């Protein structure tokens, strides 16, 4: 590979996701393999602004492939949204001798990268890392599979107590404005209803469905509610509304929260992160910039970062139909 790249920077930004460490390791090791120096920036764009960095070598990233969170820490930098902040970041990269950046994160991270690479002539490559799976240009984001497994395990446990007490549970899951986690974990855990922002079920249909469940002999039910869903916006109020209208139901609410972002990455996420991290470095050495590397049909694909930010990753609505059939 013919190139002038001597040093590559890497950072993690936005909500952390299991597998980010595997991606950092892949970037650092690929750099070492291709004889390029690697530097990690702490707390995403904020670390770039403050020149808060650490040299990453093949050995310094040992034993992190299995660790949740991110050793580089993560943040959502307000300062990077300003021209002055981005200028400081650029000056620091020049000072440090960084020729290109690998940005591991989601939507917000890539929006920042897109603006930065328009203002300054520095190649940026995006690696999608978020539990939400809401990025266009990739079928899967790093951390999504682990989060799904975490949620399914949590709902399985809730199912035990729900069925012991003949209760109805509303389980709120993360996903920001997207229903990927709710829909797939809901089907995986056999939920009776799944509320997602992409499909407005409506309160009346929810009540009808729960009544039908009762009539069909079910003594307990699980409703998975995506945090971005319109009728589930306040899951506690939703539970109250349902019990006011269906008084024979005893309802409880469980908000799974940030536990969904933690834990050891699944093998799927480790492999995905490893592939994407290596490819990000190779793209830089190939002279590419302003693109995101993703996966589709088990092949690595490259998408313009602007397209990845502006495009929409749509859910598989067929799963809603499957869920309806299976919750009969
Ligand atoms: O984007 C990942 C995510 O976990 C979303 O699912 C959630 O809406 C958000 O981050 C929570 O952000 P914070 O950790 O800042 O509360």
UniProtKB/TrEMBL annotation:
Annotated GO biological process: canonical glycolysis; fructose 1,6-bisphosphate metabolic process; fructose 6-phosphate metabolic process
Domain named Phosphofructokinase: residues: 7-284
Activity regulation comment: Allosterically activated by ADP and other diphosphonucleosides, and allosterically inhibited by phosphoenolpyruvate.
Keywords assigned: Allosteric enzyme, ATP-binding, Cytoplasm, Glycolysis, Kinase, Magnesium, Metal-binding, Nucleotide-binding, Transferase
Gene Ontology molecular function: 6-phosphofructokinase activity; AMP binding; ATP binding; fructose-6-phosphate binding; identical protein binding; metal ion binding; monosaccharide binding
Residue sites binding ADP per the record: 25-29, 159, 190-192, 218-220
InterPro entries: ATP_PFK, ATP_PFK_prok-type, PFKA_ATP_prok, Phosphofructokinase_CS, Phosphofructokinase_dom, PKF_sf
Catalytic residue positions: 132 (proton acceptor)
Residues binding ATP, per UniProt: 15, 76-77, 106-109
Location of this chain's protein in the cell: Cytoplasm
Main location: cytoplasm
Catalytic activity entry: beta-D-fructose 6-phosphate + ATP = beta-D-fructose 1,6-bisphosphate + ADP + H(+)
EC nos: 2.7.1.11
Positions bound to substrate: 130-132, 167, 174-176, 227, 252, 258-261
Pathway(s) where this gene product acts: Carbohydrate degradation; glycolysis; D-glyceraldehyde 3-phosphate and glycerone phosphate from D-glucose: step 3/4
PROSITE patterns listed in its UniProt record: PHOSPHOFRUCTOKINASE
Superkingdom, natural source: Bacteria
Cofactor: Mg(2+)
Binding-site residues, Mg(2+): 107
GO cellular component: 6-phosphofructokinase complex
Function comment: Catalyzes the phosphorylation of D-fructose 6-phosphate to fructose 1,6-bisphosphate by ATP, the first committing step of glycolysis.
Cited PANTHER family: ATP-DEPENDENT 6-PHOSPHOFRUCTOKINASE, PHOSPHOFRUCTOKINASE
Homology family: Belongs to the phosphofructokinase type A (PFKA) family. ATP-dependent PFK group I subfamily. Prokaryotic clade 'B1' sub-subfamily.
Binding partners and assembly: Homotetramer.
This protein's name: ATP-dependent 6-phosphofructokinase
Organism: Kordia algicida OT-1
Name of the gene encoding the protein in the UniProt record: pfkA
């Amino acid at each position: 590979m013919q190139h002038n790249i001597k040093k590559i920077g890497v950072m993690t930004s936005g909500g952390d996701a299991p597998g980010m460490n595997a991606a950092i390791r892949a970037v650092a090791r690929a750099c070492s393999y291709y004889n390029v120096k690697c530097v990690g920036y702490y707390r995403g764009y904020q670390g770039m602004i403050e020149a808060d960095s650490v040299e990453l070598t093949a050995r310094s990233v040992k034993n992190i492939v299995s660790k949740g969170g991110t050793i580089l820490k993560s943040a959502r930098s307000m300062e990077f949204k300003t021209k002055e902040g981005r200028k400081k970041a650029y000056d620091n990269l020049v000072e440090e001798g960084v020729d290109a950046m690998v940005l591991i994160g989601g939507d917000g991270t890539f929006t920042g990268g897109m603006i930065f690479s328009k203002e300054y002539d520095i190649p940026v490559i995006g690696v999608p890392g978020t539990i939400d799976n809401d990025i266009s240009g990739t079928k899967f984001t790093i951390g999504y599979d682990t989060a799904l497994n975490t949620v399914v395990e949590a709902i399985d446990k809730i199912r035990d107590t729900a069925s012991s007490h003949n209760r109805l549970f509303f389980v709120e899951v993360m996903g920001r404005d997207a229903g990927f986690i709710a829909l797939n974990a809901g089907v995986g855990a056999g939920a009776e209803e799944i509320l997602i922002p992409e499909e407005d079920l409506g309160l009346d249909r929810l009540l009808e469905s729960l009544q039908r469940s009762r009539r069909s002999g079910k003594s307990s039910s699980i409703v998975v509610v995506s945090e971005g869903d319109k009728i589930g916006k306040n899951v506690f109020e939703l539970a109250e509304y349902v019990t006011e209208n269906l008084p024979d139901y005893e309802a409880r609410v469980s908000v799974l929260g940030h536990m969904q972002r933690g834990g050891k990455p699944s093998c799927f996420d480790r492999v995905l992160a490893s592939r994407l991290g290596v490819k990000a470095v190779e793209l830089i050495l190939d002279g590419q910039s302003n693109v995101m590397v993703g996966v589709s049909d088990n092949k690595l694909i490259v998408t313009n970062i602007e397209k990845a930010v502006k495009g929409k990753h749509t859910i598989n609505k067929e799963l809603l139909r499957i869920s309806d059939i299976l919750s009969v």
